[in-house]
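May I ask you to comment on the folded chain given beneath this request?
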Amino acid sequence: MINRLRLYQKEIAVAVLESIFHHKGITFSVEIARQGGKNELSAQLELLLLTLFMSSSKNLVKCAPTFKPQALISMARLKDRLNDAGFGNIWTVEQGHIIRLGDCRAVFLSAEQSANVVGNTAHILLEIDEAQDVGKEKYSKDFKPMGSTTNVTTVHYGTAWDDSTLLEEVKQCNLELERKDGVKRHFRYDWQEVAKYNPDYLSYIEAERERLGENHPLFRTQYCLLPVCGGGGFLDAQQRAQLQGIHPRLHQPQKGRTYIAGIDIAGEASEDALLKNLKPMQDSTIVTIGELDFSRTDDIQKQPQINIVEHYRWTGKKHTDLYPQLVDILGKVWNCRRIVIDATGIGLTVSSFLRKALGARVIPFTFTSSSKSGLGFNLLAAVNSGRLKMYTADGSQEYGEFWQQAEKAKSCYRPNQTINFFVEQSQGHDDFLMSLALLVEAGKDCEMRKAKGMGN
C-alpha cells in the first residue's frame, strides 16, 4: 500500500506510523503544495491502519472544515482505496459518516463551529484536514480531547495562509520542538518538490505562475507554501508600475474596437446637502471603460489585455438623473459588449434599470465577503500578468484619484483563503478601485468576435 506513494509521501507515512506503533503520540504538521498528493497520503494511511486493526474495536478520526463536500470527498477516496485492495465486499458505512472494516472504524467529522462532535474517541490516529481553515477554538475544545486518553498521534494537513491559522500555530510549535530534540515533526513539500515526480504538474504550475504572478497570494500560499502577512498594501510599487500603461485617455470610442465597463454605485446626496451646495462626504458613482485588446491575448488563459480608456464620475447625483446618462454612455456612445455593475444594496435598483434598458450585457454583481475576495484575486492576477493597463497621465482629477486609491488600498487576509481589499475611510474612498475590479470581471472570458461570413 505505502509503496504506491512518492518518496516525500513515504517519508511522512513512515514518521506517522512509527509514532503510532511506538505510542509516541506525536503531533505532526504537513504542508504539501496543492494537488501534490496530501489526500492520497491520508487515504493510504487510513487503508493500512484499518487493515492492521480490523480485528480491534478502535477508531481513527478525520475532520475537515466542512462535512460536505470536504469530508465526503475524503470518504469517497478511502472507499476507492478499500475497493482497490480487495475489500469491496467487506467494508460498510455506518450513520453516513463512518467507514467500518471488520471491527475498526474510520470516523469522518465536520469541524464547522456548529458541528456536534463531542463524544468521539480517536484510538489510532487523529487527522485534521485543511487545518489552516479549522478554527483554533473548535480544535482545542472538541477535537484535541478525542485523543487525550489514548495519547493519539495527530496529523495536521494543509497549505499556508497567514500567521494566525491553526496550521501555522502547530507548525511553529513543531519547529521549536525540532530545534530542541531533533525529532522531525513538520514536513513541507512545495510545488518544486512535487514537480520532480510529475512533468504534467510542472507544466500546470508554470501556467498558474504566468496567469497569477509569482507574488499573487494564492500562488505564494497554495504552491510555494509561504504564509502571507496579516495585512498590508493591496498593490505594491511593482504592481502599480505594471498597471501603468502607455496609451492615451479616450473620450470617444475608436471604430472597430470592443469596449467593456465596470460600475461602482454610490449613494445619493441628501436634499439638505444639495440645497446648501455642500460636497457630499461619500463615494462617487464611477464608470470605468476598458478596451479589449485581442492582439495581446495571453497564451495561458487566452484573455485579452484590458486598456482603461475612460472614467466617468458623479458624486451625490440622484440615481433617477443618472439613468439616462448611463444608458446613453454605455449603450450609444461606447456600445459596451459587457457591463458589470455593483448590485449591492442601493445598487440593485440601478442595475435592474440598466439591465432592462440594455439587456443581458448588463451583469449585476452582488458584493459578499466571498465574491469580493474572488474579485480581488482576479484583479491581482490581471495586474501581475500585465493584462490590465491604465491610460497615461492627463492632469485630470480622475487620473489623480485613481492612483491615490491604488496606492492607499489595503488588504486583509481572512480564513478559508479569502481576502478583503479596501481603502481606510480615514484615507479616502475606494470607488475607483472597486470600479476597476468590476471592469476586470467584465473582461473575463471575452473572445474576439468573428466577422460575419467568416467560418462556419
In short: The longest strand covers residues 305-314. The domain at 229-442 is CATH 3.30.420.240 (Nucleotidyltransferase; domain 5). Residues 270-281, 451-456 have pLDDT under 50 and may be disordered.
